[in-house]
């Protein structure tokens, strides 16, 4: 009986030990839900859209060669002399006007000096022998002959007469990210959100600037190509003017020769001088105009590139201004966020912009 009681007590002690061990078993801790900080003003940042500006236009007044209507009337009158045997008033008046600038005797010498060789050299090089050049210049400057001579209008670009640079780069606004003391999770999150927002703005600025810079580069290439083509076209244009001037001289002299017996030696020489002086002035004017017109090609290109550059710079400036404003707003929002973190006891359970 004593042995049975001992066994019962031993079994009871074992049950108590098992119960005690069960009660001491470690319980699993419920998992903690991850906390995400949110900060007003540091999320969903964007830059305002900037549409490319259209460059200002360039105004161009083309060069022109203007024939004399008075000289045309003289040529018409000369053409009728052989048929009518009469000297028209326009022709007689022309001889009278030339005599105001040069005597009949000198007119004879000057007319003789315009040999085929001299005329050929004038046509090809635009120059006359020095002494003849001086005589022609003096006659051409006489007011009595101005109405008989061709006139020339020099080209203009943006209102400036043309006679015979740029670049801008994208401005990167330095952004100073303050090294705030990383003493809590909330502050770390605020600075991380700020850095991410600035990176977003950097990418947006690059995205907006790239096509504007590309548009300028393309415009610059196109403008320079047009200028090259413009200059290459000028020789043919002005060679044609020179050919017409020489044709008019030859026709005029031929008509004069046909009517010489009716006109008389003196009038013939005076009118010959008029044709030679007019032709000399035409060649000089055409050559000057060609040089000016060629320069106009470059002047137009320079003005167009300047306008394209101004448009580009204005757009890049607007982008940079928007970027600077946005970064300043981010800096303010970050400061507010960090202050809120500290006010909550260095990273409490609430978000930096959430109420307690």
UniProtKB/TrEMBL annotation:
Top-rank taxon of the source lineage equals Bacteria
Q: Which protein, by its recorded name, is this?
A: Uncharacterized protein
Supply the source organism for this entry: Spirosoma oryzae
């Amino acid at each position: 009986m004593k042995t049975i009681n001992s066994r019962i007590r031993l079994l009871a002690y074992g049950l108590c030990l098992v119960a005690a061990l069960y009660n001491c078993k470690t319980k699993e801790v419920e998992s903690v839900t991850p906390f995400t900080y949110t900060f007003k003003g540091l999320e969903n940042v964007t830059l305002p859209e900037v549409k490319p500006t259209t460059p200002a236009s360039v105004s161009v007044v083309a060069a022109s060669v203007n024939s004399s209507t008075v000289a045309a009337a003289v040529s018409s009158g000369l053409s009728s002399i052989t048929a009518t045997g009469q000297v028209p008033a326009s022709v007689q008046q022309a001889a009278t006007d030339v005599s105001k600038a040069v005597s009949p005797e000198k007119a004879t010498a000057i007319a003789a000096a315009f040999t085929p060789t001299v005329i050929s050299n004038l046509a090809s090089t635009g120059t006359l022998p020095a002494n003849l050049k001086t005589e022609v210049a003096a006659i051409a400057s006489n007011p009595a002959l101005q109405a008989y001579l061709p006139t020339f209008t020099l080209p203009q670009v943006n209102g400036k007469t043309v006679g015979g640079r740029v670049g801008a780069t994208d401005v990167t606004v330095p952004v100073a990210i303050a090294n705030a003391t990383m003493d809590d999770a909330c502050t770390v999150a605020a600075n991380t959100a700020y850095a991410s927002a600035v990176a977003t703005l950097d990418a947006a600025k690059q995205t907006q600037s790239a096509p504007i810079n590309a548009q300028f580069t393309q415009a610059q290439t196109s403008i320079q190509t047009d200028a090259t083509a413009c200059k290459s076209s000028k020789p043919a244009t002005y060679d044609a003017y020179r050919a017409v001037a020489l044709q008019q001289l030859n026709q005029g002299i031929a008509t004069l020769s046909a009517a010489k017996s009716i006109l008389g030696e003196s009038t013939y020489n005076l009118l010959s001088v008029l044709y030679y002086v007019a032709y000399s002035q035409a060649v000089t004017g055409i050559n000057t105009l060609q040089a000016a017109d060629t320069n106009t090609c470059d002047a137009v290109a320079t003005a167009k590139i300047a306008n394209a550059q101004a448009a580009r710079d204005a757009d890049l400036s607007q982008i940079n201004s928007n970027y600077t404003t946005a970064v300043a707003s981010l800096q303010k929002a970050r400061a507010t966020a960090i202050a809120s973190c500290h006010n909550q006891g260095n990273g409490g359970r609430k978000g930096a912009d959430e109420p307690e």
